[in-house]
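Saturday, quiet lab. Running sequence design on the structure tokens for the scaffold JK sent over.
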């Protein structure tokens, strides 16, 4: 039996399941303080004989194996969680192998093992929600680096008619600042879910998301691009994003995935809302190998 935690800034999803991605039991807890939230998590896993645990976490997190703060959530604006020793807190109660990665890398791994990128050695998983995050598998491996990529904060070219300052506390008008759920709400004065019939909202949203995906395609050449998160529940956005990506690429990348079959190239998660927690299960399976 494997344990999985998808740790989000709003909620924690916990599951027990197996190395084939089957989820046997699942629970959701709101993200409050580490003390309270972790007490729920530990109570959830306690009755099970867990062999390994996978954690896909919001960040920034420390993934450097030789770092004294490996396994920590580091400089998050969520004050209560800054410098929280996540892996350590789990290890104290469950002395088993623990896989730890970003929430979006976990989702990319879940989709590669059991979802839309099955059989591929490369994919991207992008979530557009309260924040924008992107996980990547490149040449068969989850992408890390100096710390870990932060592809939600890339710089984007501003739409000529757009005067919105952006909501990112660090950069103002980076991608997340212009196109996250809170950016939509601040810009238009209503939550995204209440703006479904406003074409101009989603056209502008697609303008920014497609720029970002275009840049990811140019830099990483992913074999599949998977887009999830609350904002993508507006299912009419994805077709707009595809058209804008084709436009931005300008016919330069001459591959049928982009020129003819883009509907199969930029896709929603096959695992739906379970991509993250299934991915955490995959991290547990890898840690247990
Ligand atoms: N149906 C919808 N249409 C448009 N926007 C939506 C919709 N549902 C949620 N959102 C927006 O998405 C954001 C929430 O994102 P999401 O549901 O992906 O949670 P999340 O931010 O990933 O949670 P966590 O931080 O816990 O991971 C909010 O800004 C919300 O307004
Ligand atoms: Zn930013």
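Result came back. Writing it out in full:
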């Amino acid at each position: 039996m494997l344990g999985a935690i998808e740790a989000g800034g709003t909620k924690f999803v916990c599951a027990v399941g197996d190395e084939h991605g089957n989820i046997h039991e699942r629970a959701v807890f709101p993200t409050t303080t580490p003390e309270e939230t972790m007490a729920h998590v530990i109570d959830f896993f306690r009755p099970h004989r867990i062999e390994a645990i996978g954690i896909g976490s919001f960040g920034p997190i420390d993934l450097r194996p030789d770092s004294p703060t490996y396994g920590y959530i580091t400089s998050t604006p969520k004050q209560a969680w800054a410098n929280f020793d996540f892996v350590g807190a789990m290890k104290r109660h469950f002395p088993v192998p623990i896989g730890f990665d970003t929430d979006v890398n976990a989702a990319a791994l879940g989709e590669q093992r059991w979802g839309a990128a099955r059989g591929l050695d490369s994919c991207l998983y992008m979530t557009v929600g309260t924040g924008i995050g992107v996980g990547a598998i490149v040449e068969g491996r989850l992408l890390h680096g100096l710390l870990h990529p932060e592809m939600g904060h890339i710089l984007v070219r501003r739409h000529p008619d757009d005067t919105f300052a952006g909501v990112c506390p660090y950069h103002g008008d980076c991608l997340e600042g212009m196109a996250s759920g809170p950016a939509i709400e601040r810009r238009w004065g209503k939550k995204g879910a209440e703006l479904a019939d406003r074409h101009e909202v989603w056209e502008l949203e697609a303008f920014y998301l497609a720029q970002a995906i275009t840049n990811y395609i140019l830099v990483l050449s992913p074999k599949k691009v998977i887009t999830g998160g609350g904002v993508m529940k507006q299912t009419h956005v994805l077709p707009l994003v595809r058209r804008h990506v084709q436009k931005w690429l300008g016919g330069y990348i001459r591959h049928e995935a982009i020129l003819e079959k883009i509907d199969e190239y930029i896709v929603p998660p096959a695992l739906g809302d379970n991509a993250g927690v299934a991915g955490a299960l995959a991290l547990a399976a890898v840690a247990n190998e």
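Notes for JK: The chain is about 35% helix and 20% strand. Residues 199-220 form the longest helix (22 residues). Ask whether to fix the surface positions before the next round.
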